[in-house]
Every structure is written in structure tokens, then in C-alpha cells.
């Protein structure tokens, strides 16, 4: 069997990190745990991921973010209404994160300090990834006068992701219909106008 490529090894390590974060929690997972789950030596993990645990945290977050954004982009292509795209996209994001313990773990108080440090170093990158996915849809909506003309894509994406994060972290146990009403009442007007 040929030796694993660097990309294959890195993916294997990221898979193991995601599994360990879900099993042990982000704060309690060590590089040793990740190496054991990946069935690799610690030295191989450190050679493949030079940024250590913080780089692995970001790699897991970014990979999961891209998975969600692929789904979101597909939804946005099919939506005719900006309010419905905002509401249903937000509902999808909340459900997506809640179904993934490894991703949800990054938003709970136990890991907030560690996650904030990792995300702070890559905040611009995360925002750029999000904007790249939704920019074409928002620009099209602005040209069609379906989106407020005075807002920019980056600010809008940041606002939406802050809303989504707060709705995940501060779960008020609303029924889906009540959550949709909340979004239509308070979030949609900020983006689409009254």
C-alpha cells in the first residue's frame, strides 16, 4: 500500500479531531487523543498540522462551515424571496449546527475561551469564506431591489452569523413556527427593509 499523501493524512487528522471534539469536548481533547484516533504518531500529527490544536479547531470549523455553505448556496439558488431565503437559511444553519455535536461544542461556555482565541486569529478568513458563498446572491438581490441598497454584503453576513450563533447558544426552545415569526419580525426588516 503506498504511503498516504499529505492531503490524505491531513484529512484523516481533521476527521479524528472532529470525532475527539464530539466525544471529549474541545477543551479536554489533546493532540495525543487525536493522534490515537487517527492511528498516527504524535510526530506525524505535528508535522502535518504545524499550528497544533488551534489549527485543528479552525480546520474542523472551516470544513463544517463549507459543508453548510454548500447547502445554503443551493437553497439560495432556489429561493425567489429574500425574506424566505433569510428565514429558511437561518433555520437551516441552526438545525445544521445543533445536529453536529463537534460544531455545537465550539459555541458552549465550556469551550468559549479556547474557541475565541482560535477564531480571533482567523476571523477575517472565516468571514471571507462566508461572504464568498453568499455575495453573488446578495448582489443579485440588491440589483433586483429585493435587498436594502444601503447595506454591504460583508456586514450583512456578519450580522446574520451573529444572529445565528446567538440563536444556537441561547436556545429559547421556540417551536419552528415561533422562530420563523421572530426572524420575520426582527431580522428580515434589517436586511430586506420594511
Structure explained in plain terms:
Residues 7-67 form the HTH tetR-type domain. InterPro entries: Homeodomain-like_sf, HTH-type_TetR-like_transc_reg, HTH_TetR. Keywords: DNA-binding. This protein is mainly α. It is 78% helix and 0% strand. The chain contains nine helices and no strands. The protein has helices at residues 6-24, 31-38, 42-48, 52-78, 82-98, 101-104, 109-143, 153-169, 176-192. Helix 1 crosses helix 4 and helix 2 (31-38) packs across helix 3 (42-48). The radius of gyration is 19 Å and the shape is elongated. The model has no long low-confidence stretch (mean pLDDT 82).
| Largest sheet composition | none
Write down the overall mean pLDDT.
82
Helix segment count? 9
Number of strands: 0
Percentage of residues assigned to helices: over 70%
Categorize the overall geometry. Answer: elongated
Low-confidence segments, given as residue ranges, are none
Helix/strand order, N-terminal first: HHHHHHHHH
Structural class: mainly alpha
What is the terminal-to-terminal distance? Answer: 62 Å
User: Approximately how much beta-strand content do the residues carry?
Assistant: under 5%
Q: Radius of gyration, Cα only, in angstroms?
A: 19 Å
